Amino acid sequence: MDTENISLLKGREKQVYEKKQGGAEIDIACDTTSLSGSVSQRACVFCGSRVVLYPVADAIHIVHGPIGCAAYTWDIRGAVSSGPELHRLSFSTDLQEMDVIYGGEKKLYHSLIELIDQYQPNAAFIYSTCIVGLIGDDIDAICKKVAQEKGIPVLPVHSEGFKGTKKDGYRAACSALMTLIGTGSTEGISKYSINILGEFNLAGEAWIIREYYEKMGIQVVATMTGDGRIDAIRRSHGASLNVVQCSGSMTSLAKDMEEKYGIPFIRVSYFGFEDMSKSLYDVAQLFPDRPEIMEKAKEIVRDEIRQYYPEMQKFKTALTGKKAAIYVGGAFKTFSLIKALRTIGMSVVLAGSQTGNKDDYRRLKEMCDEGTIIVDDSNPVELSKFILEKEADLLIGGVKERPIAFKLGVGFCDHNHERKIPLAGFVGMYNFAKEVYESVMSPVWQFAPRKGGLL
Amino acid sequence: MTSMNTTAKTATQNACKLCNPLGACLAFRGIENSVPFLHGSQGCATYIRRYLISHYKEPIDIASSNFNEETAVFGGSHNLKLGLKNVTQQYTPAVIGIATTCLSETIGDDVPMILREYKAIMGDVPQPIMIFASTPSYMGSHIDGFHSAVRATVKTLAEAGPKSDVVNLFPGMISPADIRYMKEIMEDFGIPYVLLPDYSQTLDGGPWGEYHTIPPGGTTTKAIAATGSASASIEFGSTLEAAKSGAGYLEENFGVPRHSMALPIGIKASDQFFATLERLTGTTMPEKHMDERRRLVDAYSDGHKYVFGRKVIIYGEEDLVISMASFLHEIGVVPVLCASGGKSGQMKKRLLEIIPDMDELGITAREGVDFVDIENETETLKPDFLIGNSKGFTMSKKSELPLIRIGFPIHDRFGGQRLHHLGYRGTQELFDRIVNTVIEQRQNSSDIGYTYM
Q1: Cβ–Cβ of B102/A131 closer than 8 Å?
Q2: Domain B167-263 belongs to what architecture?
């Protein structure tokens, strides 16, 4: 395959690394804003805030700006709710030219009053978009005023798209959550309790995880933000431990809660048998005065793995020797996916993320095999180049990566917001293996040009 | 006319429109070897890519100048130039289609000036052609962005020359399948033509053996240059004003007569389109298309009883809604509400031209509405089904009404890019789907289990 003519952009060389024997130390230049003109797979600050807060289902989410930002994020995540579904509605102040000239504060105020009256939410999140950062609307003042009038928390989220990267959006979302936390009663919260952080309940994943913990005898105070509820968030400072998944988005909240409320936190991952089991053990270990918690954790792991093991062997037999490329949002997920793929016999030839940090990439290098490409904030041209060069059989990514794989005749697994099948937990690992199997082993690739099909 | 239960709302809830730059990106994808480039935040490009990919199922690269805080304070000149340079290096495009966003418009970046500076800096190094469209997201909707990009394209590339036989076709925002069908018609008439923009292959193409930075296909720059010396332009879009359109620009600046007409949906509108082609070419309609027309007329008789008197709500871009209303009217379906998130101020007027007694027939039109407005109307208007894009699904589920998916976006069904809407062929497809919706509804609601319907 001729990919020689595909070059890296100047300014991108430091975000791509190939692990080679005797090669240089990894020093990926991450944490930077995307290069102008590079077709980054990242979004913006607003996107970061929006994905984190999106699953809070009994709040209304109002995007203050022109229509696009609200229209493109309407019902965008597969984050499900067991009750109210206000999060699946899209509200925008839909700013027009005159609002840009004269300011959008009045429009925001009236929108808020009307929407709160109409939907009776338990809180409102107001996202500021690029333009709000320019026209200087004082959204904090409006939020304060409406909160007073309506008696519910009205929280500004400072997520102007251009003011940083997606990670800054995570931070803005976490600081909005932080203003809620500590405002509710902690009555009835057990000593053996946790908050689940960074689990967004895509396809009901938070329910699966919650059930494991509850089986272990641990009380789950709040999940942030999957199947999220304002009241649960408000009293989450009563939990004894924060268990953080998707470390990219939620670590800052865990740190803030540790500082303010003295709640320790651990980082976990629910993807793959290995990491899923470790998560339960790690949590159980932190409650040593109740050994039955660990006993129960072991029992869950044993039962679950026993249930799925035979089927998994079938997948492994078929998939052994196949090669995968991973390009997802957070680096932490990449670690789990590498391990999960190994359990089904697959190796990883490309591993990357939109938002990893230096530590993440160092760890990634340690985990990867020789010859693996490691990328930060990649783009379609690079991804395709490496997929072809490394002859990957599978790409794991999100909606924007999917057509790259399919055009090139490569299998694909959606590990992003839009998935409809849970991939977390033990059952999630089974689903993952099944999905990978169904895509990689599909007979349709025989017609793909790179497998000898006609152009 | 506004309906009884119009509520004055301040916020837009579940918008029935998209933003201006999306349309521009789509149009720029229809030029050969071109890269759309958004001058604004990274998020705009990424969200729009994601939105388009979910419909077209094709890689869609849109570059961005990636504004940061300094850019917003000191202007986007540096980022735009660096971005153009990088896109040129990585994509080696023939054309870069630059569209603005709310951000770059609000800070007042003078893009044409920046482009001149950039060219001056690059000196003798050959550069891609830069097309610039102003598409502030706080004005209009995606359809305005689409037309601005088309107009900007002919403005940049069209050349004067001795009059040719070429006929320009500006079909507007139609499906790749519709584009292919339009091209087939032009070829069957034997007319030299330029269709702009042509994303029929770039957004609905075959498999790749190697990675293409830019997918094959699209209207060539050479063809676009020839639009200036064409004998005529045909342009679809009932509410599209000459002052904002590609054909309008060519008429004003190159004297190419503009034949503006509605999107040809239904027999009458399609007849008008074919009649225009006959007039422009002096050729009668090829037998193949006469045949398609005959089959359509025959299908109308076979299916008329299923559809007569059915009530429907249609929504989407104004031009699509108007043309759909015209088609539905000719088969006896009553479009009780013609709704759009767009606000041209012309929808009612155009509808009256087609259906003068629309008020008496109970046909209403509303511009600038969102899905919550439309949903409220379903309660009083009690339609039998809904016709529009995928975004009406939430409402259709809640109101338990079947949804016939047309136009863009179709995110919850397969093959949206391959749906036909235009001409006899597209009308046939639409008619079949409407009849089948009624049949399915009847079959499902009956306990008997009819096996012949």
Answers
A1: yes
A2: 3-Layer(aba) Sandwich (3.40)
What was the pLDDT predicted at A13? 79
Per-residue pLDDT tens digits for A201-237: 999 999 999 999 999 999 999 999 999 999 999 999 9
Please give the interface size between A and B, counted as residue pairs whose CB atoms are below 8 Å apart: 243
Domain range for A333 is: 13-28+319-451
Among residues A133, A149, A179, which one ends one of the domains?
A: A179
Which residues from chain B sit within 8 angstroms of residue A71, using beta carbons?
15, 17-19
Contact residues, chain A, for B76 at CB < 8 Å: none
Same domain, A286 and A389: no
Q: Do the domains B20-156 and B167-263 sit in the same CATH topology, yes or no? A: yes
Q: Pick the last residue of a domain from A179, A209, A226.
A: A179
Q: Characterize B184-221 residue by residue with b for buried, 16 or more Cβ atoms within 10 angstroms of its Cβ, and e for exposed.
A: ebbeebebebbbbbbbbbbbbbebbbbbbbbbebbbbb
Distance, CA of A86 to CA of B258 (rounded, Å):
48
Predicted structure pTM score: 0.95
Is 0.85 exceeded by the ipTM? Answer: yes
What is the length of chain B?
453
Instruction: Report residue B6's pLDDT band, with 50, 70 and 90 as the boundaries.
Output: very low
CATH topology of domain B299-445: Rossmann fold (3.40.50)
Fold exhibited by the domain B20-156: Rossmann fold (3.40.50)
Rounded to whole angstroms, the Cα distance separating B453 from B442 reads: 9
